[in-house]
Amino acid sequence: MSVTIVIDQLDKRDIRVLTNPLTELAALLHAITHGEHHPRSRTVREHVYRIRNDDLLAHSLYYRPLYGAYIARFFMPLTAVDKWDVHEEIDSLHELDLDVFTKHAVSAIADLPTGDHVGELRDDPALQKSVIDRASRIAQARAKLAGEIIENPHQALEGLTGFLHQVATRWFNQEWERVAPRLQTEKASRERQILAEGPSALADILPTAEESFNPHRISLDKLNHIYVPPRSEGILLVPSHHLSPHLTVKHEEGLPVVVAYDPTPADYEASSLTMRRLAVLNDPTRVEICRTVMRTPYSTLDLAERMRMKPPQMARHLRALREAELVTAERRGKYVLYGLDARALETIGEQLMSHLQR
């Protein structure tokens, strides 16, 4: 599956690159509350839990659905204006129309992809029940948050912005000073590429992205299938450090398309190698060979004798393990001894997670 963005009617002036602190703050909150698949954010997450502000941690879990798998659209740039101060960005949320805030918030809570029309929630009891029921199928806490936002969006927005200001002050500001220069470097580099290549530069966002024609379009490898037609509002590219390993695409009528991405994505060659390793290990005999050579290297003949196999059979298994870079081979005299590459096995989980989460 993929996200397909049609760029047939766009030129280089329609694509902007922004650094956005509010987007990065939401990505950091996601990494803190969904830390199991964000190894890059492990240090800051451990710091947050070490300093133990229980009230702030509790609120970060309460608002977690807003920056979960379907991050709320208002955390992404709404205009093509570059921002730097996160507190100003948070204050600008007060300018949102309450119906727009409610729609964006409840869409994220109920895991409704951006672009799905949830209408005027406050004026449609049947629709309210439908989205709250959908949220409750994920978690009752989500249904509760959705109901509170629908019932009193002004109070909900006040509570959210107050929480975000606290996060910015206590967790985010110092982190933003650290990562912002890197994002600025990426912005400058990507802008030069767009100037040289035009909309085709979008194909470089991911190593697995594909450019096609008739119509001119870019397909980005994602878990869900989305087709984004040409938009007169243009496309905003937002590099993010803590978003890794995700790629987020937001599209809604009347707003620019936003592509938030990791400027240093996972090594897809390594990811491909991991998938080959999993295929090789889908054989109990090869797993047993790994166990055997984990502590002591053995030759082909020794392994064949220990495992009661013919040497040619063992040689085929060792060749598969060697091609997957799971075992090492060291010549000692007239024998080649095979040992386990423990680090190769340790990285399988990390690479598999990156492969699944993109």
Automatic annotation (TrEMBL):
SMART domains the UniProt entry points to? HTH_ARSR
Pfam families, sorted: DUF5937, HTH_5
Segment forming the signal sequence: none
Cite the entry's keywords alphabetically: DNA-binding, Transcription, Transcription regulation
Q: Which residues form the HTH arsR-type domain?
A: 266-358
A GO term, aspect molecular function: DNA binding
Q: Which InterPro entries does the UniProt record give? A: ArsR-like_HTH, DUF5937, HTH_ArsR_DNA-bd_dom, HTH_MetalResp_TranReg, WH-like_DNA-bd_sf, WH_DNA-bd_sf
Q: Which PANTHER family would you find in this protein's record?
A: TRANSCRIPTIONAL REGULATOR, ARSR FAMILY (PTHR33154), TRANSCRIPTIONAL REPRESSOR SDPR (PTHR33154:SF33)
Protein name, entry field: Winged helix-turn-helix transcriptional regulator
Q: Which source organism? A: Nesterenkonia sedimenti
> What lineage is on file?
Bacteria, Bacillati, Actinomycetota, Actinomycetes, Micrococcales
